[in-house]
UniProtKB/TrEMBL annotation:
InterPro entries: Aldolase_TIM, DNA_rSAM_put, Endo/Exo/Phosphatase_dom_1, rSAM, rSAM_sf, RuvA_2-like. This is Putative DNA modification/repair radical SAM protein. The keyword Transferase does not apply. SUPFAM superfamilies: Radical SAM enzymes, RuvA domain 2-like. Keywords: Iron, Iron-sulfur, Metal-binding, S-adenosyl-L-methionine. Pfam families: Fer4_12 (PF13353). GO terms for molecular function: catalytic activity; iron-sulfur cluster binding; metal ion binding. Its cofactor is [4Fe-4S] cluster. It comes from the Bacteria. It comes from Qipengyuania atrilutea. Gene3D superfamilies: Aldolase class I.
């Protein structure tokens, strides 16, 4: 059989990596090449086609070490029984690609994952060796995100944190029963055990860095995970509850959601079609509510409908507000920050601007309108110096009034 070229391998393994959503770098420690030492730099902002606070799009090489795998997870295109074209990089090849692409200004770092080849330990050794070559042999100071393997020896998983800015251990599915049915080679307790070990090591490293100036850095950007949505029967309420427990128990930086995508030669136990992408978007919105708006997991779950799923036509913040209208209207000139954050249409930045502006004058509805994209969404839920919603908040058709209008696209529209 003909040996594949580097470019052919890259085509196969970069395409195979596209199903992994958990590749952002927010929170990484700042490093640079000032003084002419080292290669690469990172400024603690999103990578892998994420957007930095100043609007820049930052990217990284996102690739698998190999798409060979001894596991047979039903939802994975690279599973053992899948009929896909296979390829494999050596650690040196990935390191060379990373350096070459960096020098051409194509990327600012590396996101590296892998199928399981030979054994979990062997694969984890190869992942760590790639990062070691970059860090120790080439003094690479760009961003590195390693996907770790929970079935591997804990010491190998620990080594990944010594070289990587961020590590991720995927929980794969929202429920233990779903994992047992769709990923028979994986164990939920083992996955959470590995996440717990990583959390302890990250916390210990932070303590040591405060005490000892030259203490080793360890996964300064923390750890993340990913859940596949729509491959099993888990509801959005189940997913929100799982995400909340993961944040609380393991101090995760992010939980990523990836809508299940039908794959070639799919297993008969999988759904025939993917869930709507808007469902994935609603889960990210609910995640935002818990992380930045002060909503408790139970409150986000209250925004779900009878089937336990978040509504698709409106965002979860508006869904909660419509269910708990007694909380509104909120006086924009007197309400606390916590109450203002509950108003649909008001973002975190807008709330802080309102708090600052009302120290100097009484705010009118027009003033609030300058701080939000849609004043129509805000009007039923707040009081301003010149505005009271009267019966608007209690209208039976308020949801229909506020839901985004569905438009049929025209085939030949200009």
């Amino acid at each position: 059989m003909r040996e594949l070229s580097i470019l052919e391998k890259l085509e196969i393994l970069a395409d195979a990596a596209k199903y992994d959503a958990s590749c952002a770098s927010s929170g990484t420690a700042k490093k640079n090449s000032i003084g002419g030492k080292g290669i690469g730099s990172t400024e603690g902002m999103g990578i892998c086609h994420a957007y930095a606070p100043d609007g820049r799009c930052i990217s990284l090489l996102k690739v698998l070490l190999t798409n060979h795998c001894i596991f047979d997870c039903h939802y994975c295109i690279n599973r053992k029984s899948s009929n896909v074209r296979r390829a494999r990089f050596t650690p040196q090849e990935v390191a060379d690609l990373t350096l070459n692409f960096y020098r051409r200004n194509y990327i600012e770092g590396l996101f590296l994952s892998s199928g399981i080849i030979r054994s979990s330990n062997h694969t984890m050794e190869q992942l760590v060796e790639t990062a070691r070559i970059l860090r120790e042999e080439h003094d690479f100071r760009g961003y590195i995100h390693l996907k770790t393997i929970p079935e591997a020896d804990p010491e190998l998983v620990h080594q990944a944190g010594l070289f990587a800015d961020r590590v991720s251990i995927n929980v794969e599915l929202p429920t233990d029963s779903g994992l047992t049915r769709l990923a028979p080679d994986k164990d939920a307790r083992q996955i959470e055990g590995a996440m717990g070990g990583m959390k302890s090591a990250i916390v210990q490293a932070k303590v040591e860095r405060k005490t000892f100036k030259h203490a080793l850095r360890f996964a300064p950007a923390g750890q993340s995970t990913q859940m596949i949505i729509g491959a099993d029967s888990a509801s959005d309420a189940d997913i929100v509850g799982k995400a909340s427990r993961l944040y609380d128990n393991f101090r995760l930086r992010r939980v990523y959601y990836s809508a299940f995508s039908p794959i070639p030669d799919a297993s008969a136990v999988l759904p025939l079609k993917r869930p709507p992408l808007i469902r994935e978007h609603r889960l990210y919105q609910s995640d935002w509510l818990m992380r930045f708006y002060g909503y408790k997991p139970g409150e986000v779950m209250q925004a779900t409908e009878a089937d336990g799923n978040l509504p698709l036509d409106i965002d979860p913040k508006l869904a909660w507000a419509l269910k708990f209208r007694e909380f509104f209207p909120v006086d924009v000139n007197r309400a606390s920050k916590e109450r203002l954050l509950r108003v649909p249409g008001l973002g975190v930045k807008a709330v802080y601007k309102i708090l600052a502006a009302r120290r100097h004058k009484s705010l009118r509805l027009e003033d609030v309108g300058k701080l939000t994209v849609s004043i129509a969404k805000v009007r039923p839920f707040l009081i301003a110096s010149d505005w009271r919603p009267v019966a608007l908040t209690d209208r039976a058709d308020l949801r229909a009034l506020l839901a985004p209008k569905q438009e049929q696209l025209e085939l030949f529209a200009a």
